[in-house]
Amino acid sequence: MKITVAGAGLVGLVTSAGLAELGHQVTCIDIQKKKIDLLQTGRTPINEPGLAPLLEKNLNNGNLHFSMSPYQAYSNAEVIFISVGTKNKQDDSIDLRNIHVVSNTIAHFIENNVVLCIISTVPIGTNDLINKIIDRSKPPNLRCDVVSNPDFLRKGSAINDFFYGERIVIGADSLESASIIKQIYEPLKIPTIITDILGAEMMKYAI
């Protein structure tokens, strides 16, 4: 499957490397040129056990690519994972500016029907907001289903958590979209919980 991961932080890189290892064609996009230049050489700016060799392996076998081009990353993607940063503001609320920007960019560059999967940590109700942003800007003839797929990756054991985690949570309003995301993770044989979007958002905070 052709997959794009937006954001080359810890979660984005582990997700990109993991999905590429499962055999998918993965493009990871980020706006930081220095980071992308480094990653294209097979090196990583993040010190996470097991990540560097996994990135290098899948770069070499052609399953993984890094880019700064929204057209290259989004135009032909079948599934897009959003994993951009959502740091806390001074008042401890979550900063969603990166989510807004990348959602708007995706809406302008998609050329096919796509499933948009949110793995960034976001407040409850954010996926509904993303859906509205996408609907405002995407071509009217295209379908873009928003799915919540919260991550449960821990720094220091993120690779192990990806491949051997306790659960995969998929929140979707469309059974078809939920099935697509479930199929992506199928080789992992990890128990999968399918719920609605609100349920998935709440589960992230509860767990």
UniProtKB/TrEMBL annotation:
<dbReference type="InterPro" id="IPR028359">
    <property type="entry name" value="UDP_ManNAc/GlcNAc_DH"/>
</dbReference>
<feature type="domain" description="UDP-glucose/GDP-mannose dehydrogenase N-terminal">
    <location>
        <begin position="1"/>
        <end position="184"/>
    </location>
</feature>
<dbReference type="GO" id="GO:0000271">
    <property type="term" value="P:polysaccharide biosynthetic process"/>
</dbReference>
<dbReference type="GO" id="GO:0016628">
    <property type="term" value="F:oxidoreductase activity, acting on the CH-CH group of donors, NAD or NADP as acceptor"/>
</dbReference>
<dbReference type="InterPro" id="IPR001732">
    <property type="entry name" value="UDP-Glc/GDP-Man_DH_N"/>
</dbReference>
<dbReference type="InterPro" id="IPR017476">
    <property type="entry name" value="UDP-Glc/GDP-Man"/>
</dbReference>
<dbReference type="GO" id="GO:0051287">
    <property type="term" value="F:NAD binding"/>
</dbReference>
<dbReference type="GO" id="GO:0016616">
    <property type="term" value="F:oxidoreductase activity, acting on the CH-OH group of donors, NAD or NADP as acceptor"/>
</dbReference>
<dbReference type="InterPro" id="IPR036291">
    <property type="entry name" value="NAD(P)-bd_dom_sf"/>
</dbReference>
<dbReference type="Pfam" id="PF03721">
    <property type="entry name" value="UDPG_MGDP_dh_N"/>
</dbReference>
<protein>
    <submittedName>
        <fullName>Nucleotide sugar dehydrogenase</fullName>
    </submittedName>
</protein>
